[in-house]
Specification:
172 residues; Aminopeptidase; globular; GNAT family N-acetyltransferase; transferase
Length: 172
């Protein structure tokens, strides 16, 4: 579990489908525009894949909850893309929680974990065209544009951040 000033991040598991927050999060039209929607069955399959990645790679996506209330407000974490040979950071939050700095706060903690404990040398962020809010978060975190690509048959900009360029608190 990763804890920040306002958030807790814990590994997603297959059992998260039982509380339906994943399906509700991805049902919002503005969220679905960029990351797609899920039926309950599709969510169960996706969560099984995420749980398997945790088992195989030691990292994956996390549920993000508010420390103050325990409410699950989104997801953030790392995802290994076999097709690209890259580890990507991703974040998705319920619209009611946009604009409050949660994506940046969660992603900063995930980056510190990825570059620190996991010793990754580079992390990418694949952001679909038109997702200006996520592009702004990536730039705020220090990511720079690496290439144009396609993810899940949709055009995106792939941003990258190298461990040596990450402002780690334990580096002098």
């Amino acid at each position: 579990m990763i804890t920040t000033e306002r958030l807790r991040l814990r590994p997603l598991t297959e059992t998260d489908v039982n509380v339906d927050w994943w399906v509700r999060l991805h049902a919002d039209e503005e969220v679905k525009r960029f990351v797609g929607g899920y039926t309950r069955e599709q969510a169960a399959a996706r969560l099984r894949d995420i749980q398997q990645q945790w088992t195989q790679r030691g990292h994956g996506l996390c549920a993000v909850t508010l420390r103050s209330t325990g409410e699950t407000i989104g997801r953030c974490g790392l995802h290994w893309w076999e097709d690209f040979g890259e580890t990507e950071i991703g974040w998705t939050f319920a619209r009611a929680h946009w604009g409050q700095g949660y994506a940046t706060e969660a992603a900063q903690a995930v980056l510190a974990w990825g570059f620190g404990s996991l010793e990754l040398t580079q992390i990418t962020a694949m952001i679909h065209h038109g997702n200006t809010a996520s592009s702004a978060v990536a730039r705020r975190l220090g990511f720079t544009s690496l290439r144009e690509d396609s993810v899940l048959n949709r055009p995106c900009t792939v941003y990258a951040l190298a461990r040596d360029d990450h402002p780690s608190p334990d580096r002098h």
